[in-house]
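Ex. 9. Protein: Protoheme IX farnesyltransferase.
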Amino acid sequence: MASNVATTPNILPADWRDFLALTKPSVMRLVVFTGLCGMLVAPGGINPVLGFTAILCIALAAGASGALNQWYEADIDALMKRTEKRPLPAGRMDRQSALHFGVGLSFFSVLLMGFATNWFAAVMLAGSILFYVIIYTMWLKPRTPQNIVIGGAAGAFPPLIGWIAATGHVAPLPVLLFLIIFLWTPPHFWALALWVRPDYAAAGIPMLPVVAGERTTRRQIFLYSIPMAAAAIAPWAMGLTGNLYGVTAAVLTAWFLYLAAKVGIRTAVEDDGMKPEKRLFAFSILYLFLLFGILLADHWMMAL
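Predicted structure tokens for Protoheme IX farnesyltransferase:
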């Protein structure tokens, strides 16, 4: 006798890999590294145990932000090829579990930061989570093509938080580090958006290439790269770093501008089959790692 009970899709039991995927570990690496550099270049140093704890808190907060982002955008992620295999749209986890995981990590990271270092750093950490989840994910991203311009502030907090965790105050150098990442974010993400434009269009996300077209996006990538270049050189020009950082930053930034210019004025595929925007996106990640790595090396050399 056939059953009349309606069936619903079963959600597979999540394992630790699914919870790890919620934290967006590929994004977390850059967040942790820039936060670590901000902390290590701060004057006076920090107890190694407390320093490790502070970086752990930054990592946990980044993971919490990623989890809450995926909880809120589960339906959107299911519409995009780039994200359809994430735990929620793939049916390996229910949304409530993702929400509880993200909220729990958020509270734990902020409280641990406050007790281990100082409450100024904890407040900044809480602000970075709220900015990413509420201001960027819930408000800006679905409403305006300028979402990543303003929302980029969320990813720029780590070096500032790392510095504050070590010192308890703000100074010009960490503000400039914040500004570098803030201005780096639009050309970085718009380069990605150019070659995954169909995904954003299918999901109804008003990214710049979707609402303004490729030509405008390419021009904006180059235009935003110019103030980013100025911000990258500013620590050296203001005497806050040594020549190692200054020269290396100038070379790396000149190459970034060259790639951004190729995106702005060309649409042809390169000889190796890679589009200029894909090349810029790949280099932009390496650029930030190298820039902050050289900043740290420069700091250590000046301390000798």
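Check your answer against this statement. Residues 1-9 have pLDDT under 50 and may be disordered.
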